[in-house]
């Protein structure tokens, strides 16, 4: 209960600091759940578990092919998001026009947490991304794709839609690069109207082998390679302001 009261106070202060009408944390409905894109002929290439070492190269491959990626970031998973290299990576892909979103702070199974714990997991990554970029995220992906009504309710309070996927490259469960490429070949041959593709930026094979192949195959089918926000027809962020200067509070 104490955490909920403190959270409400913090959110009220944050909303007060925003320009009129930019955010409203009151009377939010349960979060929308997206398991696929809704805009025809779009593919959203998404990348979980970063920021990680290969992210700038992933961004370059995307930009060289007129594609926009969506990066679901953790705060303290493979790296601490406040490490200077991680800060630079987040800022770089954001400045390149890619879409950044929440994957929670420490990558827990949200189904095992209380509502207060879910709020804490979401707030800490939101705060970090606001500090680094100035953007308040509008989308979150629950770790492992696990969610329940409580997760959707908390996300709704925080103004964020929940995003899963309808295609998995399976890079995180042991698929080789060749197997992941074959999966992209197989789904492209079926030519669904849209595709919401799960990848992980923490594998060099995904960055340097699978991604270039996937882009080539998908572009050959005529898909537009866009952000999650664009593939569901919604704004990328709830609010965009100025990034902050580093302080002693920037730590995991």
Can you offer a commentary on this structure?
It is a lipid-anchor; GPI-anchor. InterPro entries: Glyco_hydro/deAcase_b/a-brl, NODB_dom. It comes from Crepidotus variabilis. The protein has helices spanning 2-17, 55-64, 84-95, 115-133, 149-157, 177-190, 204-220, 228-232; strands at 33-34, 42-50, 70-73, 99-102, 135-137, 139-140, 161-163, 167-168, 195-200, 224-226, 237-240. By secondary structure, the protein is of the alpha/beta class. Strands 2, 3, 4, 8, 9 and 10 form a six-stranded parallel sheet that branches. Strands 1-7-6 form a three-stranded parallel sheet. Strands 5-11 form a two-stranded antiparallel sheet. Residues 1-25 have low confidence and may be disordered. The protein starts with a helix and ends in a 12-residue tail after the last strand. It has one domain: TIM Barrel. The longest helix is centred in the middle third of the chain and has 19 residues, at 115-133. The protein contains eight helices and eleven strands.
Quick recap:
The chain has helices spanning 2-17, 55-64, 84-95, 115-133, 149-157, 177-190, 204-220, 228-232; strands at residues 33-34, 42-50, 70-73, 99-102, 135-137, 139-140, 161-163, 167-168, 195-200, 224-226, 237-240. The chain is an alpha/beta fold.
